[in-house]
Design a protein that fits this description.
Helices cover 45% and strands 13% of the residues. The protein is α/β, with parallel strands linked by helices. The chain has one domain (5-281): NAD(P)-binding Rossmann-like Domain (Rossmann fold). Strands 3-2-1-4-5-6-7-8 form an eight-stranded mixed sheet, with helices on both faces. Helix 4 packs parallel to helix 6 (164-185). The two termini are 35 Å apart. It binds NADP nicotinamide-adenine-dinucleotide phosphate. NADP nicotinamide-adenine-dinucleotide phosphate binds next to helix 1.
């Protein structure tokens, strides 16, 4: 990965942090994105000393806010002209209905809109890198939780009937639908985009869900979850392995292509999500 530049969101904890460490160890220039400046600075310091790679940097922004995501992308673009790997990883589950700065349900705002906006705003740099270097990659961290979900876009400003598992599953389905739609739109370029389920991983995931749920999640994590190191393996593989060069529009788990849910292959739903996201963010052209 020497000479390559990697941008990772949600890199201050869990699998994003381990991926940053592993990719830095492989020699990449890693730029981490965190939401809290002090925490991000500390993580950056630790990652540099653990990896022995000083060629690392950071950006700070709340990725549930459209303006903040756009600012992070603008700051990256202003400072750099190369991006080999964009790893969209920041994500969470919210036990209570929460509203983002833009008035959208928080899971949708963070888990889907940050992937959509960062990918689109950094596409020019990714395409430039791909034409100079032969390829560039986008990796979207999804979840097997997408499997029970259907796409709903009519309840994103509506608290009634909120279920955190449904909202989370829907946001992770959006990650897969978005991956497939973007892959089609990038067919003529050397930029690939893939989605990944990291496994059930023992991270900070779900620890913000109140006493009862977070206790249950922590117990389950102790019993059945894999380590963040193991959970990051497929992310690092997709970011760095020559084996996956040129492969795009796939869903991965344990370093293997897997079939995602039937619903995720529905082209109408992929396009519907794209157009809806384009309309509310002001990015992305209308359907070709
Ligand atoms: N853990 C699992 O079992 C599992 C399974 C399937 C998929 N996933 C997916 O894996 C990804 C990473 O999750 P994880 O398990 O590593 O969880 P985690 O340990 O909770 O890490 C989540 C990361 O996202 C960041 N983040 C949260 N809200 C943010 C915001 N508003 N703006 C910017 N960054 C924000 C967190 O920042 P802070 O450090 O400031 O909190 C942290 O760096 C998520 O997309 C999740 O859906 C996880």
């Amino acid at each position: 990965m020497h000479g390559k530049s990697v941008l990772i969101t949600g890199a201050t904890n869990g699998i994003g942090k381990v991926s940053a460490l592993e990719l830095a160890k492989l020699g990449a220039e890693v730029i981490i994105v965190g939401r809290d400046e002090i925490k991000t600075r500390k993580v950056l310091h630790d990652l540099k000393s653990q990896s022995g790679n000083a060629n690392m940097d950071m950006l700070v922004g709340d990725l549930s806010s459209i303006a903040e995501i756009k600012r992070v992308a603008a700051e990256f673009s202003a400072r750099r002209d190369r991006l080999d790997v964009l790893l969209n990883n920041a994500g969470a589950v919210f036990s209570d209905y929460q509203v983002s700065a833009d008035g959208y349900e928080m899971t949708f705002a963070l888990n889907h809109l940050s992937y959509f906006i960062l990918s689109l705003l950094l596409l020019d740099i990714l395409k430039r890198t791909a034409s100079d270097q032969g390829e560039a990659r986008i990796i979207n961290v999804s979840s097997s939780a997408h499997r029970n979900a259907t796409l709903r876009l009519d309840n994103l400003r509506d608290q009634s009937g909120y279920s955190f598992m449904n909202s989370y599953g829907a946001s992770k389905l959006m990650n897969v639908l978005f991956t497939y739609e973007l892959a089609r739109r990038l067919e003529d370029s050397a930029v690939t985009v893939n989605a990944v389920h990291p496994g059930v991983v023992n991270t900070g995931f779900g620890h913000n869900t109140g006493r009862l749920w977070s206790t249950l999640i922590k117990v389950a994590q102790k019993l059945i979850a894999i380590s963040p190191e193991k959970g990051a393996e497929t992310l690092v593989y997709l970011a760095s392995s020559p084996d996956v060069a040129g492969i795009s529009g796939k869903y991965w788990n344990r370093k293997q292509q897997k079939r995602s849910s039937e619903h995720s292959y529905d082209r109408q739903q992929q396009t519907r999500l794209w157009e809806f996201s384009a309309q509310i963010t002001g990015l992305g052209e209308a359907e070709d």
